[in-house]
Design brief:
The chain is mainly α and 173 residues long. It has helices at 2-15, 25-51, 59-71, 80-91, 126-171; strands spanning 96-97, 104-105. Strand 1 and strand 2 (104-105) form a beta hairpin. This is No apical meristem-associated C-terminal domain-containing protein.
């Protein structure tokens, strides 16, 4: 495995000689070991920060809290860009329903970028469904109210006509 990693690194380094320094397999293994240790400590700090989450905290606040927790070990977490890159690639290989019949599909090549995922819409959730039903009830209620208002106007008009008819009859000798 490390010989393949070394080969890929040197191919990438040849394309970007100003950005990447030459490395041997031993230095790559050492870097990998440090990344894994730091990432493990970072994940623990993130979990602790999530556990300490208070009302009104957003994701950025939680991340800042995680940095504070991580610093108690003596240094700042320097590998956030690498961690986020690895995590974003990891999350893109999760199973997702992409077939009409609801079956799961795992991309055959996880390194291939996806273009937005599934085209099938997600099922309506419980809360959204209730809100939609409430909207329908409100709408039908407003329709009923409009009909009742129209009936009331009709009844008022009929009452006015009856009152005028009675007044005219009472004025006749």
């Amino acid at each position: 495995m490390w010989s393949r990693v070394h080969k890929l690194y040197h191919e990438t380094q040849a394309e970007n000689p100003d950005e990447l320094n030459p490395r041997n397999i031993k230095s790559m293994k050492g870097r990998w070991k440090r990344l894994c240790e730091n990432a493990g400590k970072w994940v623990a700090a993130l979990e602790e920060a999530n556990w300490r989450k208070r009302s009104g905290m957003n994701q950025k606040d939680i991340e800042m809290e995680a940095h504070t927790i991580y610093k108690t070990n003596g240094s700042k977490f320097q590998d956030l860009v690498v961690y986020n890159d690895v995590m974003s690639k990891h999350s893109s290989t999760k199973r997702s329903r992409t077939f009409e019949n609801g079956e799961y599909h795992i991309p055959s090549n996880p390194e291939t970028p996806t273009t937005g995922g599934s085209t099938i819409s997600r099922p309506t959730g419980r809360d959204k469904s209730k809100k939609k039903e409430k909207g329908k009830a409100t709408q039908s209620g407003s329709e009923v109210a409009a009909e009742l208002h129209a009936l009331r106007l009709t009844r008022d008009n009929e009452n006015e006509l009856i009152a005028k008819k009675l007044e005219l009859e009472s004025q006749k000798p």
